[in-house]
Design brief:
Elements lengths: L1 E5 L2 H7 L5 E7 L2 H4 L5 H18 L4 E7 L5 H4 L3 H5 L3 E4 L3 H10 L5 E3 L1 E11 L2 E6 L15 H4 L26 H11 L34
Parallel strand pairs: 2-3, 2-4, 4-5
Antiparallel strand pairs: 1-6, 6-7
The protein binds iron/sulfur cluster (2 copies).
Length: 222
């Protein structure tokens, strides 16, 4: 899932214009699961904005709505009426959701209420960790399903670096060494021989380094 974090209330107050009707727009998918931008967070942020507005005389008129997915035009339809009634939208979607709303409503200011962080999973209660940097050319099969591009702090495709202590990463001692994990995983699945191969340099043109990426499925175009 896409993992995001809420911006602080002081940040939101700096961003939002005074004397405006604001729609706090949540998203019911990834950011709901990571407790950043779902219905519950929409309610919490809306209440905080109302309280701040009253206390500081900011003149906010705050309304709330959560749709299933902000990054999908089919679901954005459900927000049209609410968006048309307000001056600005405070989106609690990920960066893609915010931009999808801004592209759809050309004359409506749309503000990002979240900081979109990474693609990851819930590792344990209250802890989300990054698992994929979306490099565009997946090599997980070479590493037993553990991504060295993302989970090794030095992004080594031919590791380890030799700096780990116990099972901890030299750069991030709070995280396990990805190469230790890769070793144990390959051992468990009987593929340790993969480590004898030297991986060639990765093709980074498929990553964001090659510019914004587009996928075109000709078989789905009319
Ligand atoms: S190799 Fe690339 S696509 Fe695959 S998990 Fe790692 S970053 Fe993601
Ligand atoms: S200690 Fe392990 S995870 Fe950390 S940089 Fe070195 S090889 Fe990568």
């Amino acid at each position: 899932m896409i993992v995001a974090e809420r911006k602080s209330i002081p940040e939101l107050l700096d961003m939002l214009p005074n004397d405006s009707k604001i729609l706090v727009l949540g998203c019911g998918t990834c950011v709901t699961v990571c407790l950043a931008g779902g219905e519950r967070e929409v309610s919490i942020i809306s209440s905080a904005l109302r309280i701040a507005s009253k206390a500081r005389g900011l003149g906010y008129e705050v309304s709330e709505l959560t749709i299933e997915r902000q990054c999908d035009n089919v679901f954005i339809e459900q927000a049209i009426e609410a968006i048309e009634k307000v001056d600005v939208v405070l989106s609690l979607g990920c960066g893609a959701g915010v931009q999808a709303i801004a592209e759809r409503f050309l004359k409506k200011p749309v503000y990002a209420g979240l900081n979109t962080k990474f693609l990851g999973i819930l590792e344990e209660r209250g802890v989300w960790t990054e698992k994929c940097s979306q490099c565009g050319s997946c090599v997980l099969h070479e590493y037993g399903g553990i991504c060295p591009v993302t989970r090794c702090a030095k992004h080594l495709l031919n590791g380890p670096c030799g700096g780990s202590r116990e099972d901890r990463c030299e750069v991030r001692p709070d995280r396990p060494c990805a190469w230790q994990l890769i070793y144990h995983r390959l051992k468990n699945i009987g593929q340790l021989e993969r480590l004898e191969k030297i991986e060639p340099p990765k093709q980074w043109s498929a990553s964001l380094s090659g510019g914004p990426r587009v996928i075109i499925r000709e078989d789905h175009r009319i």
